[in-house]
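[job 0412] stage=complex_fold ligand=adenosine-3',5'-cyclic-monophosphate status=START
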Amino acid sequence: MAEKTLSIIKPDGVRKNVIGDIIKRFESNGLKVAAMKMVHLSRKEAEGFYAVHSARPFFSSLTEFMSSGPVVLMVLKGEGAILKNRELMGATDPAKAAAGTIRKDHADSIEANIVHGSDGPETAVFEIGYFFSGIEIFE
Ligand code: CMP
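[job 0412] stage=complex_fold status=DONE, emitting structure tokens
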């Protein structure tokens, strides 16, 4: 059965005009867009999404960055979608990301790292449910 994961093109990705390049990489690698919307998150909405990181020193800066401009939210679907998306993104820190990955090619820093992807099945359920209702996801 196809797996689902949440993908976010972060404000830096939208500002750099690389939405299309990023989606093309997903579609070319066996992932399908099952839901999509563009929103400008409030600070509170960003804080709720990243609540698991609330004790981290970078939490304030991260949530300020994530609410600094519109983002593209997507549910990606496919065999092994969570891992596939993580492979396509590359390491969180673009300096450590492998050649040919989205972050290696587009990201400037560990915070402004262009994309987010769910890191496991439980996270994916929480993250998809945070932004999308059932009728917004196409099977
Ligand atoms: P993301 O995949 O969205 O998940 C949490 C985010 O926190 C991560 O990408 C980075 O943008 C950010 N992050 C993780 N570690 C650090 C760090 N050491 N300094 C600043 N931001 C970080």
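The chain has a mean pLDDT of 98.
[job 0412] exit 0
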